[in-house]
Design a protein that fits this description.
With 123 residues, this protein is an all-beta fold. Helices cover 0% and strands 48% of the residues. It has strands at 3-6, 9-12, 17-23, 32-38, 45-50, 57-59, 67-72, 77-82, 91-98, 112-113, 117-122. Strands 2, 4, 5, 6, 9, 10 and 11 form a seven-stranded mixed beta sheet that branches. The model has no long low-confidence stretch (mean pLDDT 96). Strand 7 and strand 8 (77-82) form a beta hairpin.
């Protein structure tokens, strides 16, 4: 199983980025998917999660209203649209897959992880 995150980069505050996660999972449509991030010197933090069928989504309070998670089970991909970015959003963003139902928000519930993509927001 491989998860490949992409789409990170350098953006000015107020800008937007769209992160993507490509999964080489034969049964991708049965996995809940999530995004987490880790800023320098900080713990890993939940960003967003989506259930296997896309009907359930959860967002971190600090990002609610600024991000949107989506998935395409036909393409084995998941996206995270991030708008109105702030310098405090600077972090390495990781995509992850969970075999649990729903949309888990705890990183301990995810089994597979991508390598991460760097997002840097300048002020």
């Amino acid at each position: 199983v491989q998860l490949q995150a992409s789409g990170g980069g350098l953006v000015q505050a107020g800008g937007s980025l769209r992160l993507s996660c490509a999964a080489s999972i034969r049964t991708f449509s049965t996995y809940a998917m999530g995004w987490f991030r880790r800023a320098p010197g900080k713990e890993r933090e939940f960003v967003a999660a989506i259930s296997w069928n896309g009907e359930t989504t959860y967002y971190a309070d600090s990002l609610k209203g600024r991000v949107a998670i989506s998935r395409d089970n036909a393409k084995n991909t998941m996206d995270l649209q991030m708008n109105s970015l702030k310098p405090e959003d600077t972090a390495v963003y990781y995509c992850a897959a969970s075999r649990l139902t729903g949309a888990p928000t705890k990183h301990q519930l995810y089994y597979y992880w991508g390598q991460g993509t760097q997002v840097t927001v300048s002020s």
